[in-house]
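Two quick folds needed for the group meeting slides. Do the first one here.
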Amino acid sequence: EALEVTREVNCVVDFIHGCEDQLQKLKKQKEKGLLYGIPVSIKDHINCKGHVSSGGMVKFLSQVMEEDSVIVQVLKSQGAIPFVKTNIPQTMINYDCSNLIFGQTLNPLDHQKSPGGSSGGEGALIAGGGSILGIGSDVAGSIRLPSSFCGLCGLKPTGNRISPSACSGRTFVLAVTGMLGPMARDVDSLALCMKALLCQEMFRLDPTVPPLPFDEEVRLRGNP
């Protein structure tokens, strides 16, 4: 389904090889994790071992990542299957989703319109039915805008709530903390993803993340 969607709107930039082997290994484990077997799409700049995090820039195409980012490691520990990487605008500081390497991503709801940015590939893939859960990033709307443009739900967590460690190293001087966060078709999926991410494995891999688990009671209290 992801391949069919990307043929129409050009949202997938890479297939994460090894995801099928990962699933076979997970089947043999006793503890499956909260996200067991769920295929998860990943924004281009989030590092995956053996793959490029281009940031939409040609100069980074030769830099193959040697390890998974913390968030990818945690997703895998919770049973999720990262399976594709998705398109972004060049440098990611853009409300559209286009670069000179992979081209323009279209909105699956209307091919004459943009899916938004910078997590536009995620928005297009999920809205088109090629993924049910994705990880984007947001400084000034990069999760929220594609979610709005594509009719999805997205969350920019509080600063430093999720480890940004081992994401592609494009350094910007910003007054607002950029954050990784989930994108999906409904709020319950976002909550499940946050509950899975805010676990001991996250806190162990990145001690700078406050060891505060997801509070289900607070979420339900605000959702009568």
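Then this one, please, same format:
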Amino acid sequence: LIVDKIDKDEDGFVNQEELKDWIQFTQKRYIVDDVERQWKTHNPENKEKITWDEYKKMVYGFMDGQYRDMDQNELDKDEEGFSYQNMLRRDRRRWDVADTDGDSALTHEEFSGFLHPEETGHMRDIVVLETMEDIDKDKDGKISLPEYIGDMYRGSDGEDEPEWVKNEREQFSTYRDKDGDGFMDQEEVKNWIIPPDFDHALAESRHLIYESDSDADQKLTKEEILNKYDLFVGSQATDFGEALARHDEF
């Protein structure tokens, strides 16, 4: 059923362009759905804007004075950089960047930028900043190789490192750390997580065709896709798992 949906020109094949279009469609749909759902949750009366105070009360209300159901130690507790106080500060900072007219309230469009900053031009620097804060454990404003690896892999003593971790070490020194000083600075982190001119949908469609195209004709039959169904269902990009559950798709 899904393959028929992707095959726009109904020629019995899924080509790269059709697959790329489907991936872009599912990504967009996920974001629209997510924003809509959260907008309704935080703004049940569907007012034009959500104020910071309304959002804070709904998400962090449990931290406030008389309603508080956690003691101060719990709120300040910092395990692996996680604390509610820290989350609140980060949310407020992100809110202020999303709030383009500076009135401390977000329109539907601004709220979308707040929830999905990676999709919104002027919000991308905050994604870089948050990533830096998460990985930079010694807070020196840059990311070392141990911090970079430690974010993805925590091996136990004496355990052999998996091959992919060795590959990531090479990635760090060859591609991530462009000036070769042993660290990733803010600009290098930006190039890593938001590479300029990188088309995620195009890259994923190429990868899926490369992995599934058994006769190497650069297009996929329904049979070729079904033979690799686990690859497609497992791909976040195609969102097949979600599409199967959505009856409105059909």
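Slide caption for protein two: The beta strands are 13-15, 50-51, 105-106, 143-144, 183-184, 219-221.
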